[in-house]
Amino acid sequence: MPADNPFVGQANKKPELWAKGLRNPWRYAFDAPTGLLFIADVGQSTREEVDVASTMQGGLNYGWNIMEGSTCYNATTCDQTGLQLPVLDYATHVAGTCSVIGGYVYHGSAMPAIQGHYFYSDYCAGWVRSFRYQNGAAVDQKDWGYFFTPVTTTSFGRDAAGELYVMSANSVYKLIPGP
Is residue 77 part of a domain? Predict the structure, then answer.
């Protein structure tokens, strides 16, 4: 256990913990060029979220079960002091959405215009979206449309060249430049 882990030596804390307050992360991805950690965290009933933090920032509290995404989960105890709020969230059970699926930051060469975009999807909706993380915010958000209708998005993959793949229950699709 590294001596600089954020909870080492704290009463009633497990010293192996790095962060807390995640509900159900459905893929997290380290982005080595930027030193950032991207976490797609499945909500309870109203919000899906994507969190981003430096890999050097231990001890963060992502807010569950005080917050669900950017909204209060339990209004009687909604003190946001010290919480790391998501950089992006969206409503669950709206337009067919149900569960965020985390992907990767694009570092391939086939599509230079989207270098540095983080890709994610929704399990039920089947759309693919991306954003760049800049100065603590999700910028340059793009909706790439529906890859799988009505098939679900199950995961993302990345090859050795940094190109991205989107998976459904029985197929793998490579993201390629459009016309």
Answer: yes
